């Protein structure tokens, strides 16, 4: 797949990034380079390779799951601009 300047401009618009007109050819080339790297990754044989979370084998540290500081509903709702019946109240957005 090849990215042209029109496509690069569209991507920049979708990403809400302001790109000057004269910088679009360079941006399109960068996108093409990235796509080339992705195509190279698709050629790698990963048969038999197990997924990993780190380059060194280690177990993730986990904390004990305990309930702390519960029962603060009134304190939390005191920061809300509008609260009703123990819940945050928000404006209706769907008719």
TrEMBL record:
EC number per UniProt: 6.3.5.-
InterPro entries named among the record's database cross-references: Asp/Glu-ADT_sf_sub_c, GatC
An annotated Gene Ontology molecular function: asparaginyl-tRNA synthase (glutamine-hydrolyzing) activity
Reaction(s) catalysed (UniProt annotation): L-glutamyl-tRNA(Gln) + L-glutamine + ATP + H2O = L-glutaminyl-tRNA(Gln) + L-glutamate + ADP + phosphate + H(+); L-aspartyl-tRNA(Asn) + L-glutamine + ATP + H2O = L-asparaginyl-tRNA(Asn) + L-glutamate + ADP + phosphate + 2 H(+)
Signal sequence segment: none
GO annotation, biological process: glutaminyl-tRNAGln biosynthesis via transamidation; regulation of translational fidelity; translation
Organism superkingdom: Bacteria
Transmembrane segments: none
Keywords for the protein's UniProt record, in alphabetical order: ATP-binding, Ligase, Nucleotide-binding, Protein biosynthesis, Transferase
Pfam families: GatC
Family: Belongs to the GatC family.
The protein's assembly and partners: Heterotrimer of A, B and C subunits.
UniProt xrefs under PANTHER family: GLUTAMYL-TRNA(GLN) AMIDOTRANSFERASE SUBUNIT C, MITOCHONDRIAL
Main function: Allows the formation of correctly charged Asn-tRNA(Asn) or Gln-tRNA(Gln) through the transamidation of misacylated Asp-tRNA(Asn) or Glu-tRNA(Gln) in organisms which lack either or both of asparaginyl-tRNA or glutaminyl-tRNA synthetases. The reaction takes place in the presence of glutamine and ATP through an activated phospho-Asp-tRNA(Asn) or phospho-Glu-tRNA(Gln).
Protein name in the entry: Aspartyl/glutamyl-tRNA(Asn/Gln) amidotransferase subunit C
Lineage, highest ranks first: Bacteria, Pseudomonadati, Pseudomonadota, Alphaproteobacteria, Rhodobacterales
Gene name of the record: gatC
């Amino acid at each position: 797949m090849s990215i042209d300047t029109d496509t690069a401009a569209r991507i920049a618009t979708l990403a809400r990034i302001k790109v000057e007109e004269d910088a679009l050819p360079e941006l399109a080339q960068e996108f093409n380079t990235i796509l080339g790297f992705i195509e190279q990754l698709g050629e790698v044989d990963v048969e038999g390779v197990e997924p990993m979370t780190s380059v060194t084998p280690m177990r993730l540290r986990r904390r004990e799951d305990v309930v702390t500081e519960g029962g603060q509903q009134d304190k939390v709702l005191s920061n809300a601009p509008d609260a009703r019946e123990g819940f945050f109240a928000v404006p209706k957005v769907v008719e």
